Amino acid sequence: MFFTVLGFRRPRSIVRTCIFLVILFVIYLVLTSPPSLLKYESRDPTNYASLKRSLLVHAAHRALAENLSFSCTSLPVQLLPVSSFRNVEFYFFGKPIMQVFKDVSDERHWKWKLLLNSSSTARIERLIHADALSIIYGTSYALEHQYIRNITWSQRVLVASVSKAFKVTGPKNKQLITFRQFVEPFGCSLNDLKLMPKSFLFSENNECLDFFVHISKNTKSAWIIKPYGGYGGNDIEIYNTVSPLIDKFGKCDKRSRYLAQEYLPNLLLLNGRKFDVRAYILIARTKPYFLFYHPGYLRVAISKFSASAGREVHLTNTHVQSQVRGFTMDDHFWSFSAFQQYISNISMSNDDFVHTKLEPIIRQTGLFILQADFMVTADFHVWFIEANNYPLWPSNVKGLDKQTYEMANHMLDLVMEIHSSPDMFVKLKPGARYGSWELVYNELQAKCSGVQYNPCKDFRVQ
After folding, report:
1. pTM reported for the whole predicted model
2. Residue 90 — φ and ψ, nearest 5°?
3. Residue 112, beta-bridge partner list
4. Cβ(330)–Cβ(299) under 8 Å?
5. Which of 155, 157, 196, 452 falls between 20 and 30 A from 10, CA-CA?
């Protein structure tokens, strides 16, 4: 069984955008993912002498999974009831420990482990024979590990990993290509949706040439150049004029690993400072997919915005901002409620902007992208910027401490219950809540109702 959490940037009906991104991701996985993403019961897992011989066993499991389906009224149980275990053990696989999950584990008297890695095969083999429920929190690459893949069928193991999630939350070029490929069969282009700023891949020769033709006709536009695999603001460059941009990147080369994204003009500012919006989408279960939305937070630059200033006023991510003099967590992170209060003070016509415009776009995007980051322009248009698969969960921040702790607690209860008692979720419709998480997509209901999602229709006008 699998679940994962993702994040987003900037508002403007973020909920609709989230739905769009999640649906994109779901359709992509249905078409391309191996059937091993399905968790199901093994009649007697202890009969296998050694997991080292389980490649053959795994092949049999895959064959079974291909024929395993779900009805419109019930779902297979994929996890034994939590009450049947003496202990719960929380493992981090290929990821650094997240403090909020450590705190939750300590409060629940769960055992948490530092890290599992490729050399931990003996420990992994023992998981299915233990008297404890094992929760493995890993990257989208975790399922490529032979021993992780070979224990996913166990009703004693819950794996927080979705195969190929990096296609929509990983390198920026892969995200862009996946989003384009998802939209085009519906009869429109990604640019038609006005969901993301215009973007060009330098490694695609024709696209690179088109970019330089475009900027030669739009010499006053500003651009942000991002490395495909960058994170934390590393190697990002902002160009307010096109001449230096042409000088550095004008010779298109398929070996280039950069993309150009239009710098949004006329940004909405908070007290004169740039910001972005991050929200969460949880893939609580696969086969079928259940997706839940949770409000996130704003990341606000410490310094006043100026187009000609340095990168610290342009890049709002926490790594960059933490290096600015005068940085404090309380000044950098804003809650959605604080954001709405600010909006209400400057625009009476948007006194419910967060609930009626921002969150609906985020939810919609979640069907297409998952955890994402958004930005907002002064006309209150919400733009999706990019997605991430291991977002920061702020702690020790005024106004967000309680939210973060509740989000983690409710998430763990949700993913355990949806795998151990799935039938109670079968008839849930978008808008239903589990603790602080809100359902935005139920694949079972969508398929059984016959309603087809069409991003070209939902995002044509914002």
Report:
1. 0.82
2. -110, 120
3. 90
4. no
5. 452
Q: Using one digit for the tens of pLDDT, what is the confidence trace for 20-77?
A: 555 555 544 444 443 333 332 222 333 333 333 333 333 333 333 333 456 788 888 8
Q: Whose CA is closest to 254, among 212, 220, 290, 208?
A: 208
Helices (H), 231-367: 242-249, 311-314, 318-321, 329-332, 336-346, 353, 359-366
Compute the C-alpha angle 359/361/367, nearest 5°: 110
Give the integer Cα–Cα distance in Å for 405 and 403: 6
Identify whether the C-beta of residue 267 lies closer than 8 Å to the C-beta of residue 279: no
Which parts of the chain sit beneath pLDDT 50? 1-2, 8, 10-12, 27-68, 461-462
Written as six digits, the tokens of 433 are: 């809540």
For residue 214, the surrounding DSSP H or E stretch is helix 205-217
At 462 the pLDDT is 47
54 vs 45: CA distance, rounded Å:
11
Beta bridge partners of 433: 438
Rounded Cα–Cα distance for residues 416 and 82 (Å) = 8
- Rounded CA-CA distance 37/3 in Å is 10
For the beta carbon of residue 8, count every other beta carbon within 10 angstroms: 34
Token reading at 435 = 């603790």
Cα–Cα distance, 441 to 428 (Å, whole number): 9
Is the separation of the CB atoms in 381 and 393 below 8 Å? no
Q: Which of 137, 118, 149, 124 is nearest to 33 (CA)?
A: 149
Closest CA to 188 of 378, 20, 302: 20
Bridge partner residues of 200 (DSSP): 260
**What DSSP designation does 372 have?**
E
pLDDT of residue 351: 85
Q: What token pair was written down for 264?
A: 């949004």
Residues 438 and 432: beta-carbon distance below 8 Å: yes
- Give the integer Cα–Cα distance in Å for 186 and 184: 5
Characterize the bridge pairing of strands 275-285 and 223-227: unpaired
> ∠ CA 18-23-28 to the nearest 5 degrees?
130
Nearest to 316 by CA among 303, 330, 335: 303
